[in-house]
Design goal:
The chain is α+β, with helices and mostly antiparallel strands. It has three helices and seven strands, in the order ββββαβββαα.
Length: about 150
């Protein structure tokens, strides 16, 4: 009788992490931030936000992350779009949420620059790969004026 061999099942991919991204439009421009040196993906531009905690909604995540990372008080609205992207370390589901800032200034902590950009400048930035499809959607919305500028 042949010897039985044990088989180990190794998952090919970890489940995607849900990450919320703030889409903040003001006077026809959108807020983007650049990751500071020493941070993961340093030097790349992104829509501010972060990883969702278990049981947290994208909106609750955005309010928490903007407060922690940029000292911004805000109101989070509807989800605009999402993008599933696989990085070498795993996949993320980037969920873009429409946000209205209550405070008018921000304080940088994990970023070294924040910038308001128009649709034509947005895709010329060195964006984090997961943010590129979101940026394309935001640029299209800005171009058609379907997002009202505050």
């Amino acid at each position: 009788m042949p010897a039985l061999r044990a088989h180990v099942i190794i998952p090919l991919m970890k489940p995607a992490k849900d990450v919320a991204a703030a889409i903040i439009i003001h006077k026809g421009r959108v807020l983007v931030t650049r990751r500071a040196p020493g941070q993961e993906m340093a030097g790349l531009w992104e829509f501010p936000g972060g990883k969702m905690e278990p049981g947290e909604t994208p909106q609750a995540c955005i309010i928490r992350e903007l407060s922690e990372e940029l000292a911004i008080a805000c109101e989070a609205g509807d989800v605009l779009t999402s993008n599933l992207h696989t990085y070498p370390g795993g996949a993320i589901n980037l969920i873009a949420v429409r946000v209205r800032m209550i405070t008018q200034t921000c304080q940088l902590s994990v970023h070294d620059e924040a910038r308001w950009v128009d649709g034509s400048e947005l895709l010329s930035l060195d964006l984090a790969p997961a943010d590129i499809p979101v940026a394309e959607a935001v640029r299209a919305l800005l171009a058609t004026n379907t997002i009202n500028a505050e």
